């Protein structure tokens, strides 16, 4: 099956919620208003579709020339293992400015092994304030 990757200007909340649910990613999908705000303020969304059906996405915030925060990477569990997540990261990096741009993501504990497996470089100089909810 062919997977088509594309930058999309808009991702519907229903599509986001569906893939997050199917991927196992932990996001506040019960709070639709918050999801809608998250999507409205993201400025880079890369999708993966098979026969037109959304199977994965990467949602980011970027200035397209220096930094990119890849906030969400989600792939339907039925499609995992096909290289879709890795390709979504590659497409995000390209769209965000390529080698000129640092791409940062914070891995969910259950996803660390995936990022190690695709040999995404680790950072040891990250600091953060965790959200309270």
UniProtKB/TrEMBL annotation:
Keywords on record: Ribonucleoprotein, Ribosomal protein
InterPro entries per UniProt: Acetyltransferase_Butenolide, Acyl_CoA_acyltransferase, GNAT_dom
Molecular function GO labels: acyltransferase activity, transferring groups other than amino-acyl groups
CC per GO annotation: ribosome
Sequence ranges assigned to domain N-acetyltransferase in this UniProt record: 1-133
Superkingdom of origin: Bacteria
PROSITE patterns per UniProt: GNAT
CDD domains for the chain: NAT_SF (cd04301)
Protein name: Ribosomal protein S18 acetylase RimI
Organism this protein belongs to: Enhydrobacter aerosaccus
